[in-house]
Amino acid sequence: MVSATELSQELSGLVERLGPAVVRVSGRRRVSSSGIFWSPDVVVTENHGVERDEEVEVFPAGAGPIAARVVGRDPATDLAALRLSAPGSGAAAPWQTDGGAVPAAGHFVLGLARPGRTVRATLGIVSRVAEGWRTPLGGRMDSFLETDLAMHPGFSGSALIDLQGRIVGLNISGILRGVSLAVPAATVRRVVESLRDRGALATGLSRTAS
After folding, report:
1. Cβ–Cβ contacts within 10 Å for residue 91, how many?
2. Under DSSP, is residue 198 helix (H, G, I), strand (E, B) or coil?
3. Segment (H or E) for 81
4. Residue 48 DSSP label
5. In terms of Cα–Cα distance, which of 25, 19, 22, 21 is closest to 48?
6. Both ends of the chain: CA-CA distance in Å?
7. How does pLDDT run across 153-201, given as a tens digit for each residue?
8. Looking at the domain that runs over 1-210, which CATH code has it been given?
9. Which residues on neighbouring strands pair with residue 58, listed in sequence order?
10. What is the mean pLDDT of the chain?
11. Nearby residues of 47 by Cβ (< 8 Å), 6 or more positions away
12. 113: which of 9, 61, 155, 168 fits an S-S bond (Cβ 3.0–4.6 Å)?
C-alpha cells in the first residue's frame, strides 16, 4: 500500500514531468485559459476561451509568447486547435493512446493548468463515467467524464492526468454549467486531427454518426 508521503512524491514528480506539456493561452478575454501541446506546433484548448479570436498568444513553460492562430474549432465539443508560428517544446505530451480507455469512478486524477507563468495543480477524483453522450450542441463525446476538480480561473483547457502519467482528457467548463467535465482523450484525438488536417476553420466535426 502506497503511503501518503510516497503518493505526494509521485504527484510532485508528475507535475514536474508533465507541466511543460501545458501552456497559457491568451486571446482578447481578460482571463487566460490553458492549452495542451498536441504536437510541437499544435496546441489544443477549449473553444469558448478563443471563440472571438483568430490570432492568440501561447505561453509555454519558461518561454515568451508565441503567436498562434486558430486553425479549427468545434463548438459542439468546446475544442479548438491552434497552430503556433514557431514550434514549442511539447512534442512528448503523453496523450493516452490505448484505445481510449478512461479512468473509473473513484480514481485519483490530477488537473494541470497554466493560468499564469507557472503551472498550477489540483487533485481530485473521477466522480462519474458513462458511455458516449451528446452535448447540448450535438457534439459526440466518447464518454461522459465528470470529476470533482476545482475549475479555478484559467483551468479550462487544462490537462486531466491519471496516476500513470497519461493525459486522459482536457478539462472544460463551457458545456454544462457548474459541472467539471473533461473531453476524453479519444474525442480530443478525433476532433483535433480532423481540425488540424483540414487546416481551416470548421464546425460540427464531432457530429458524426455513432
Report:
1. 12
2. helix
3. strand 79-84
4. G
5. 25
6. 41
7. 899 999 999 999 999 999 998 787 778 899 999 999 989 888 867 644 3
8. 2.40.10.120
9. 25, 66
10. 85
11. 73, 74, 75, 77, 78, 79, 80, 174
12. 155
DSSP 49: G
pLDDT averages per 10-residue partition of the chain, 210 residues = 86 93 86 90 91 88 89 91 83 70 88 94 93 83 90 92 93 81 92 72 39
Residue 128 and residue 105: Cα distance in Å, rounded?
Answer: 5
**How do the domains of the chain map onto residue ranges?**
1-210
Q: From the DSSP assignment, how many helices (H) and strands (E) are in the chain?
A: 2, 12
Q: How far is CA 204 from the centre of its chain?
A: 19
Answer for the pair 158, 49: CB distance below 8 angstroms, yes or no: no
Q: Which helix (H) or strand (E) holds 190?
A: helix 185-198
**Cα–Cα dist 30/17, whole Å:** 29
Locus of grid cell 454518426: 209
Contact between 38 and 80 under an 8 Å Cβ cutoff? The reply is no
The model's pLDDT over 171-181, given as tens digits with 9 standing for 90+, comes to 998 787 778 89
Q: Which cell is 16 given?
A: 514536474
pTM of this prediction?
0.88
For cell 517544446, the residue is: 89
